[in-house]
Design goal:
15 helices; transmembrane; transmembrane helix; MetI-like; 2 domains; transport; about 75% helix; membrane; about 280 residues; mainly alpha
Length: about 280
């Protein structure tokens, strides 16, 4: 009987190890699929144009070439576009957080007629593609004379239905006694929202900031529609300019520009990996 139990335990341990091995292999395959385009993009940026267009193509450059990066920095005002992009994405993310906090607080903790309908309306906004509103928003901003301004790039995205939903769901797990105690101490609603509940929702707000920042950092269509002036153009547009210059597509320049574009975001995720994981898995 003892031998039977030992054999069963050994089989169970082997089965657990096999499942762990299969899981690791699947995760490794997914990682390779996701990292493959970045590796190919980086390798291509280090090749010369004849090496890229040669058939059959060599997987690795014969000699590492950094000339594409120097040419990109000289062809377009990369640093200006980069500063514009970071400013726009940061401003949108902070504005979304500032407005999502009171909106989520109202839907989670205040009692008023139509609260349920308001929450359903917020959820319905998640189902509407942003492209549906581009024409009327562009018309309004054009009539207001805001084309080629940072206001036109930032204000249309200041309110986030996803941010409101995330904050509302996080606030549902905050005890009402904390809010009542703050009111008894004389704290107003804004102080409760931003100084008491805000720090408690740091993981949720961190995730919202990162998701919003990355999305708008990579946004191409809206800056393309709203800007024609280099003073407010963003970095993704610089990559498009590289495609339009000269005859034919100079793939080594395009790939070098994409490496420059993606590197800051990759560094942010690498630096904030633990914080992001904690933000996604935490209840509050």
């Amino acid at each position: 009987m003892t031998a039977g139990r030992g054999g069963g335990a050994g089989a169970g341990l082997f089965s657990a190890r096999a499942r762990r091995l299969v899981s690791d292999l699947v995760l490794l395959a997914v990682a390779v699929v996701w990292l493959g385009p970045y590796v190919w993009m980086t390798i291509t940026s280090l090749k010369t144009l004849p090496e890229i267009t040669r058939a059959p193509a060599y997987p690795l450059p014969q000699a590492i070439q950094l000339g594409a990066y120097r040419e990109v920095l000289q062809a377009v005002p990369v640093m200006r576009y980069f500063a514009n992009t970071v400013f726009m994405a940061t401003a949108i993310a902070l504005l979304q957080i500032a407005l999502a906090l009171p909106a989520g607080y109202a839907l989670a903790k205040l009692r008023f007629v139509g609260r349920g309908a308001a929450f359903v309306l917020v959820l319905s906004c998640l189902l509407i593609p942003a492209q549906v509103t581009f024409v009327p928003v562009f018309t309004m901003l054009g009539a207001a004379g805001l084309v080629n301004t940072f206001a036109a790039l930032i204000l249309p995205f200041g309110v986030s239905a996803l941010g409101t939903f995330l904050v509302r769901q996080a606030l549902l797990s905050v005890p009402d006694e904390i809010i009542e105690a703050a009111r008894m101490d004389g704290a107003g609603e804004l102080r409760i929202i931003y100084l008491i509940l805000g720090p408690m929702l740091r993981p949720t707000l961190s995730a919202l900031f990162l998701f919003s920042f990355v999305f708008h950092y990579n946004d191409y269509f809206w800056p393309l529609v709203m800007t024609t002036d280099d003073r407010v153009r963003t970095l993704p547009l610089a990559i498009a300019l590289l495609r339009e210059q000269g005859t034919g597509v100079r793939w080594h320049l395009v790939m070098a520009g994409n490496v420059i574009l993606s590197l800051p975001v990759l560094l942010v995720f690498a630096a904030a990996q633990r914080q992001l994981l904690r933000a996604v898995t935490a209840r509050v």
